[in-house]
Design a protein that fits this description.
This protein has 287 residues and is α/β, with parallel strands linked by helices. Helices cover 39% and strands 18% of the residues. The chain contains eleven helices and twelve strands. The strands form two sheets. Strands 1-2-6-7-8-9-10-11 form an eight-stranded parallel beta barrel, surrounded by five helices. Strand 10, helix 10 and strand 11 form a beta-alpha-beta unit. The radius of gyration is 22 Å and the shape is globular. The structure holds magnesium ion. The site of magnesium ion (MG) has 3 residues, from strand 2.
Length: 287
């Protein structure tokens, strides 16, 4: 009987000892070991997309591959058409100075015409779990940028996509980020320029940062500081293995890349869990 009690006591002690390491782990340990991949201008870097950035095919490939998000660039024409195109000019013509008709004959590398935002959002709707990372390109004045923001919101509303679980915003324009922060406080809005620390960005009503990865190399504590401020963090555009490995160690929430399959492999190597679109349940805090 006595021997039985000793064995029981020993077993209980063993159980308590086994529980200690788990209980002592920091609460956010798991969350820090998850990252989402954002396909830069869609998953354009593959045969199926015809290697055409910002094409509908590139968005479709990103959706099918299950990356957490797909990024795209939006510009506004003089007659208020929003189009998905990276540069501010097409064939030397400033997009915001010309009506959309001027650009209709232009073709992307895979033969597609330049997608209008409406066409792009139609494709975006088909995969509700892929986050649409919407970049608003800077325009010539705050007034023009305000119109651009207003049309953006109207378009998303029209397509049933004005939802922080479906769309997040990025911009190099401080004015655009601030305006979006005021109008859509529930959405993740990330400032791209890299010239302000997380506290300064948060203080002006912008709740995220998406900086070139070299900024995080210089300021490795910023991702942690941003996390404490409940901000989202993202690094662009991380393509080389050595840079990807370093950015994974910086523990930003999302990595924007032209080589999303490579990032997927390197996350596995680092034993960091990839948050795939199929698992995504929240826009601003998937991590
Ligand atoms: Mg972009």
């Amino acid at each position: 009987m006595k021997k039985e009690r000793i064995v029981k006591l020993f077993m209980m002690m063993l159980c308590v000892m086994m529980m200690i390491p788990a209980a002592a782990a920091p609460k956010n340990r798991i969350s820090k070991n998850r990252m989402g991949i954002v396909a830069h201008r869609g998953f354009w870097n593959c045969e199926e997309a015809g290697y055409a950035r910002n094409s509908l095919a590139a968005l479709r490939c990103a959706q099918e591959a299950g990356f957490w998000g797909s990024e795209f660039d939006v510009n506004m024409t003089a007659d208020d058409t929003l189009i998905v195109f990276h540069d501010g000019k097409i064939d030397g013509k400033l997009i915001e100075d010309y009506p959309f008709a001027e650009f209709k004959s232009y073709r992307l590398g895979n033969g597609e015409p330049i997608p209008t935002l409406d066409q792009y959002l139609e494709q975006g709707k088909l995969y509700p779990e892929t986050m649409l990372v919407y970049e608003l390109k800077p325009h010539s004045s705050p007034e023009v940028e305000d119109r651009f923001v207003r049309l953006t919101i109207e378009s998303l509303e029209k397509h049933g996509l004005l939802d922080p679980k479906r769309v997040m915003f990025i911009s190099f324009s401080f004015h655009i980020c601030q305006r979006l922060g005021e109008l859509l406080p529930d959405f993740s809005v990330q400032y791209l320029e890299g010239n302000m620390n997380p506290k300064e960005v948060k203080a002006v009503g912008i709740n995220g940062i998406d900086y070139h990865f070299s900024v995080f190399d210089k300021h490795p504590l910023w991702p942690k500081e941003a996390r404490k401020l409940k901000m989202t963090t993202n690094a662009w555009t991380v393509n080389k293995d050595e840079d990807i490995r370093r950015v994974i160690q910086h523990r930003v929430m999302y990595i924007t890349t032209d080589n999303p399959l490579q990032v997927r492999e390197l996350l596995k190597e680092a034993k960091v869990r990839e948050v795939r679109s199929i698992n995504s349940t929240s826009a601003s805090a998937p991590i």
